[in-house]
Every structure is written in C-alpha cells, then in structure tokens.
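hey so i finally got around to running the thing on that chain from the lab meeting. sorry it took forever, my laptop kept dying and i had to restart like 3 times. anyway pasting the input first so we r on the same page abt which one it is
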Amino acid sequence: MIATLLDALKSAPSEEAAGPIELRITHLWVEGASPSARLLIGRGVRDLGAGAYDDAVEDFSDAIALDPGLAEAWHQRAVARWRGGDTQGAIRDIEEALKREPRQFAALQTLADISEARKDWRGAYAAWQKLLEIDPKTPGGAERLKDLRRRALGDQT
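ok and heres what got predicted. didnt touch it at all, straight out
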C-alpha cells in the first residue's frame, strides 16, 4: 500500500493532489505502530504544538523505546529537538529515521531546513534534491531547489 502511494506521490500532477497522498502515507507509517506508540506520538505532536519541546522529546523517546523501527517517531523527535535547540541531536534522529525509511520525505525536509538554518547550503541542497525525487510536488519545491542550488553552487549563468 505505501509503495503504491509513494509511486502516486511521485507522479502527482499538482501540489494540491500531492498533499492528501503525503498525509495518507504519513498516517500509514504511524498506523503500523503499536497502540501505545501511536498514543505517545499523538501526545508528542500535541506537545510540539504547545511549544513543550522537552515533553515532546520524552514522548517520542518513549515511542522509540517501544518501537525503534518507527521512522516517524525518530523524525518527530528530531523536530522537537531542533525546536528545543538541540541541533546535533535532531540531525542524529533524522539519520536514524532515514535508516529506517529512506523515503521519509518529511525528515528530508526537516534536514534541509536545519541545514539551511546553519547556512550549510550544500547540505540543504542535497537534502532538498532527495526530497524532490520522492515528492516532486512539495509546495514551493522547484523554487526552493533553484535558490538552494544558487546558494550552494553559485550562480550558474
């Protein structure tokens, strides 16, 4: 099912068509977890939304302890760590997420965001390229790729 949806995502005709496919894929990735891990992820997402980053990290860590193969838990913990100021921990978690699910497009987007914030233009460009291979209709994707390419490689005239 996920492979079929990832193929559909790759061939989506527009950003509007890709959005629901992205959501369904993410939902299926989480749906495969145990009920306890899903509950912890839900709690962690709420904590993230409330700005309670330490609590979110704890919830996602508990979900990872229950289901270490759950790439979305690693990705969400990366987001919580990054927002809480732990950039290195966030990058390690993204690496773990991508080991478990190399097509985890949201993790690649987060990695690009972190790299861009650190002014690591080559890293941001590389992550964004990988993201667009999986999800070519990411909102603003082509423009951002062009901008990151310019920043990473200089003007190509």
